[in-house]
Amino acid sequence: MRYLITGGCGFIGCNLVRFLLANRPQAQIRILDKLTYAGSLANLGEAAGDARVEVIEGDICDPDAAQATRDCEVVMHLAAESHVDRSIFGAEQAVRTNFEGTFRMLEAAREAQVQRFLHMSTDEVYGAAEGVSFDENDPLMARNPYSATKAGADRLARAYWVTYDLPVLITRPANNYGPYQYPEKLVPLFVYKALRDEPLPVYGDGMQVRDWLHVEDHCRATLLVLEKGEPGEAYNIPAHNERPNMATIRLLLDELGKPESLISHVEDRPGHDVRYSMKGDRIMKLGWRPELEWEAGMRRAVRWFADNLDWLDSSYQRGQEFFEKWYQNR
Ligand code: NAD
Ligand code: DAU
């Protein structure tokens, strides 16, 4: 079986590559990745030298690069501009990569007549879950540029099933955490700052709720949907680990032995979704349950960043220009 993984050098992608190599040893994996600030060959570690892994550096928006689907039975489409704050700062790149890029990949997959196309969407497509928990049939009410481009891509992927019989599967995972997450996201960014005794910029009151899914649990769910899911369907992947940001931040500080005086409440993210929450009945019927307990999993993730300081520093530096503009005067 030959798998094409777009975005395989990013956070979830590099974890998924490792997971596939370990659990489907016959797999031949081709990665298509633009190696933006968020992606790096270093994320692949030993997997980069594995004879079963081929890396193509290219942009999914480029129709020629999208032809990386040739000879592949399976496409797992992860490549995206994944950061909400960057999409708020300027939406163009998110529109291009997340929507147009998905269109290019769907077209190329259709041409290659792949057997499965897994589109990785997000829980953000539903919008803020104020007093509710969404199931897969709820309307997509995305509210920020990132989630709006993901909602468009999610529906475009579904349209390729309805219209062209492309066997599309859609996953909508909750907030992932774990090794190799780029340090623009809450957990690795705050570890980076706390280790330098710098203030942690908490948006607003920090009481926004996220559902924290360990990336290993997520990789298991992704492979299950790929292999056992019903084409044309969407699958929520919740963790049932909903926590206010302040709880995550306090745990992180505790693990690092740093004081809560580092917490600094700053101007809120515009249009900040106060809560994400999903029901998981459909994927649970396939036999999946999240296994990592929140506190232990989060402490382990925090420790991983603290133990991999070279990786954390060099990753952070690639995003320095954006951080200066975004956090200045916040
Ligand atoms: P990431 O930002 O860590 O990695 C994205 C990868 O895509 C990088 O390797 C980057 O180089 C590559 N990429 C970006 N633009 C590209 C382009 N035009 N062509 C080719 N490659 C390109 O993202 P992630 O957190 O690993 O997310 C992976 C997927 O999962 C995304 O589709 C995201 O929307 C979705 N998702 C993420 C989370 C989360 O919590 N991280 C949760 C739900 C869904
Ligand atoms: O829910 C799934 C989504 O989770 C994915 O689709 C996105 O790709 C991923 O980036 C993530 O989006 P969030 O916006 O939830 O993640 P982020 O790490 O940016 O923020 C998590 C919470 O922490 C959110 O409520 C905003 C808050 N936050 C974040 C940053 C970076 C702060 O308070 N301060 C910060 O500096």
Name some characteristics of this structure.
330 residues; alpha/beta; Rossmann fold; UDP-galactose 4-epimerase, domain 1; 2 domains; seven-stranded parallel β-sheet; 12 helices; globular; binds nicotinamide-adenine-dinucleotide; binds 2'deoxy-thymidine-5'-diphospho-alpha-D-glucose
Short description:
The protein has twelve helices and twelve strands. It is α/β, with parallel strands linked by helices. The protein has two domains: 2-177 and 212-237, NAD(P)-binding Rossmann-like Domain (Rossmann fold, 3-Layer(aba) Sandwich); 186-210 and 242-274 and 294-327, UDP-galactose 4-epimerase, domain 1.
Q: In words, what does this structure look like?
A:
The N and C termini lie far apart (49 Å). With 330 residues, the protein is an alpha/beta fold. 48% of the residues are buried. Helix 1 (11-23) crosses helix 7, helix 4 (92-112) packs parallel to helix 5 (145-164) and helix 6 (186-195) packs parallel to helix 8. Strand 1 (2-6), helix 1 (11-23) and strand 2 form a beta-alpha-beta unit. It folds into two domains: 2-177 and 212-237, 3-Layer(aba) Sandwich (Rossmann fold), CATH 3.40.50; 186-210 and 242-274 and 294-327, Alpha-Beta Complex (UDP-galactose 4-epimerase, domain 1). It is built from twelve helices and twelve strands. The strands form three sheets. The protein has a seven-stranded parallel β-sheet, with helices on both faces. A three-stranded mixed β-sheet has the order 7-9-11. A two-stranded parallel ribbon has the order 8-12. It binds nicotinamide-adenine-dinucleotide and 2'deoxy-thymidine-5'-diphospho-alpha-D-glucose (DAU). 2'deoxy-thymidine-5'-diphospho-alpha-D-glucose (DAU) binds at residues 82-84, 122-124, 174-175, 185-186, 189, 201-203, 208, 210, 245, 269, 276.
